[in-house]
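Job type: complex structure
Entries:
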Amino acid sequence: MIRVCRSLSLGGLVFSFLSLCQVRGEELPSQAAPPLAPGLPPANPNDGATAPAAEAVSPAQPVLPPLQQAPEPLAPPPGVQVEEFVGHRSYDKDGSGWGWVKRSNDPWSAARWVVLEETPGGVVAPWRLLNKKRTADNDFEYRLRGYFAPFSVYDPHTDEFLAVFVPERMEPIGPAAAPPEHPGPPFHRVRLPDSTSPVSVTDPNIQAPDALR
Amino acid sequence: MVEFSSADASRSFRSRWPRWLGPTLLSALLLVSGVPRLPAQEPAQQEWIVISGGPALRFFEHGKADSHDKYWGNFIRAAVARLGQLKLQAEGKPGIVITWLVYRPAYASRSREEKLDILPEIVEQANALKVPLLWFDTTDQLINYLNAGQDRKIMPIGALDYFGHSNRACLMFDYSTYFDNMSKGCLHEKDLRLIERKAFLRRAMVKSWGCHSGEDFSLWWKRRFGVPMVGAVGRTDYATASLPYLSKGAKWNQ
């Protein structure tokens, strides 16, 4: 009798284990994925209520770009100081701005839309260190150290002059919802068509004339 | 012009219109149509200027579908070709000075990137042409030269040619040199007011060989200086070893 009970309970255990595995296998196709980072709202808030199982589903953790530090401390122009900032990367399909940058203690309403000054061999736009797609770090936040340059630069695609941020250090924080005050790039008064790109060179193999060699 | 066939008609006209109206109407007409220009007396001296903007860094342009400036010297060899033409035109005219202005920072950056000595090569070109070469590092320097590089009362600018990046609203002396897809050193149409009207000869020949200048920049130029600027509606192409040509569907405008 005891043997029968033991075998039954053992069989039940094995059955339960197997059925559990089967069920979990259906529910969680990607068990290796880590849980969703706390504090991040679901993509669609309504989804959470209708599908509780989705809470257990976790997307793959985004790959963060590496921390970047300039090889030398920056030497800003007189009257300008290197400070701590927070930046929110916001990809702009129409222009060449990088994202919103504010001082650490300021609200996002005080953020400025900036162009990032990149230094080949130094601090560059983090997307270059990911998969080379400009959208790779869209809606990522960064702790920044640097300063606002005292000049602006011209974006020929939108016919605008934009503020410049010079980074000394860029430390990724991770994905974050866009600030409500700045849900995306700013509105562009003008969008010049793609054909307004500057001079085209159709022959990539063109060589310098002898006189210039 | 209205002509009256008889004294009666003239008298009746005078009787119908007050005396002060004639001169007033004439003045208003002159104001509307612009002050009539006397045939400009060709000054004994004038300066012909050629401006070369600079190339992009490959760091920024590499891998783009529409990658610019694979060869660093597009705006140099085109300017050299134009300078050669101008020198021929200036032969036998001792009052003409030809000057070549080149945006140095872009060539210095590209030199570092490609580990080439580009600046001496440009100097060599100028020496071969026997043309004075002047570097400029900022737009302010360029504007200052246009305004006061020579005494413009004695030596106005008689010709200006621009080779470089541009769009419909701006001449860009650098593009993707300091900032990806952007320009730090440029002359926007709204900044044309910084250049003295009288710096140019009334019959000056002005041409931008960059893309799209004829779409808007030329209009602002004409409005500012009264001198037409020939510019492209559409794109220009620097793929030949000589002057750039219009891309398919483009045309010159002024």
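Summary: The first strand of chain A starts at residue 68 and ends at 69. Helices of chain A lie at 2-27, 45-50.
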